[in-house]
Specification:
The chain is an alpha/beta fold. The protein folds into two domains: 5-155, GTP1/OBG domain (Spo0b-associated Gtp-binding Protein, Chain: A); 161-335, P-loop containing nucleotide triphosphate hydrolases (Rossmann fold), CATH 3.40.50.300. Helices cover 16% and strands 23% of the residues. It has five helices and 14 strands. The radius of gyration is 29 Å and the shape is elongated. It binds guanosine-5'-triphosphate and magnesium ion. Magnesium ion (MG) is lined by residues 171-172, 183, 191-192, 212.
Length: 336
């Protein structure tokens, strides 16, 4: 199941109580105050996790509670800090306060961490309150309470490039050859059920992020197949890449596939039809004499010819040229 939404309760830990205690030792009456401080309560921290692509675990464990700080003890021993609650989330997750609707944070990069609820401060032990006139204070601070609120986690996959294609076109195969992503690949439709994100390494330490989403079929906008709700995951991408199976074994002729994809994107709207795009004609290894791809290419209007790339994820033919072109499209988009 792919879950891109979870209602949770966030609670940071309470600070531990400061301690009232006096030093005791044989033959040393009236030892001074030695009550230790309470430990601070644990924080609730969101952290972006590479390779995670669903919020499903928070449907089952919605209570994101950090631990309370331990109380202080005698002999100046401080209480332990409460354990933080580290909440791993997929990149592209936002956290919203349910009551106010305020967006508290957005995790974009893997490894980014944001403290969303700070633990209460531990109380000071009585050792801090001794004064020349009051050498035996019987007072220590209580710990401060943590914070608690209801919130919503919501995921929208973040990527530069969104792969759009019919089932079996080879979208997952493409992301697996250009990045370290390891999606499931198989020769039956709807192999991909959850969006998968892969990072493509370019020269000079630059990267671009690609999102593989489930296949779209004709009528998806009316709910056929897995529907088009997954297109919302490419809403935030800058460029779309239509992946089209041009092999003689394709279930749908490539020119029809291209039209279907365009129609479904139009029905979905949300800015997708206006996005720049490229077309990857995949599985050229199954078209050795180039008849299929030439025929498809003849159907492509002249003004789209420069967007047309022939690739094979099996032999890697044309992959480097495609990556270079995607990089350029992103670059041009940035400058415009
Ligand atoms: N010969 C050949 N087979 C390919 C190529 N690319 C993908 N395939 C095969 O096509 C089938 C479908 O590949 P996937 O990558 O799972 O396709 P998909 O578009 O992700 O499919 P869904 O997730 O179902 O939408 C698999 O059996 C792949 O091995 C290619 O370039 N050449
Ligand atoms: Mg797939």
């Amino acid at each position: 199941m792919f879950v891109d939404y979870a209602s949770v309760v966030i609670k940071s830990g309470n600070g531990g109580q400061g301690c009232v205690s006096f030093h005791r030792e044989k033959f040393k009456p009236n030892g001074g105050p030695d009550g230790g401080d309470g430990g601070n309560g644990g924080d609730v921290i969101l952290i972006g996790e590479l390779g995670m692509n669903s919020l499903v675990r928070y449907r089952y464990t919605p209570r994101l509670f950090a631990k309370n700080g331990q109380p202080g003890m005698g002999s100046n021993r401080s209480g332990k800090k409460g354990k933080d609650m580290v909440v791993k989330v997929p990149c592209g997750t936002i956290l919203r306060n349910t009551e106010t609707g305020e967006i508290l944070c957005e995790i974009i990069e893997p490894g980014t961490s944001v403290t969303v609820a700070r633990g209460g401060k531990g109380g000071k032990g009585n050792q801090h309150f001794a004064t020349p006139t009051k050498q035996a204070p019987r007072y220590a601070q209580p710990g401060l309470p943590g914070v608690e609120f209801k919130a919503e986690l919501e995921l929208k996959v973040m990527a530069d490039i969104g792969l759009v294609g019919l089932p079996n076109a080879g979208k997952s195969s493409l992301i697996s050859v250009v990045s370290h992503a390891t999606p499931k690949i198989a020769g039956y439709p709807f192999t991909t059920l959850n969006p998968v994100v892969g990072v493509i390494e370019l020269s000079e330490f630059r990267t671009m992020v690609m999102a593989d989403i489930p296949g779209i079929i004709e009528g998806a906008s009316e709910g056929k197949g897995l529907g088009i709700q997954f297109l919302k995951h490419v809403e935030r991408t800058k460029t779309l890449l239509f992946v089209i199976d041009i092999s003689p074994y394709a279930d749908t002729p490539p020119e029809n596939a291209f039209e279907i994809l365009h129609r479904e994107i139009e029905s979905f709207g949300h800015g997708l039809p206006e996005k720049p795009f490229l077309i990857a004609a995949n599985k050229t290894d199954l078209d050795p004499d180039a008849t299929c791809r030439d025929e498809f290419s003849n159907h492509i209007p002249d003004n789209l010819k420069e967007k047309f790339f022939q690739i094979s994820t099996a032999t890697r033919e044309g992959i480097d040229q495609l990556i270079t072109a995607l990089d350029k499209t992103l670059h041009d988009d940035l400058q415009s």
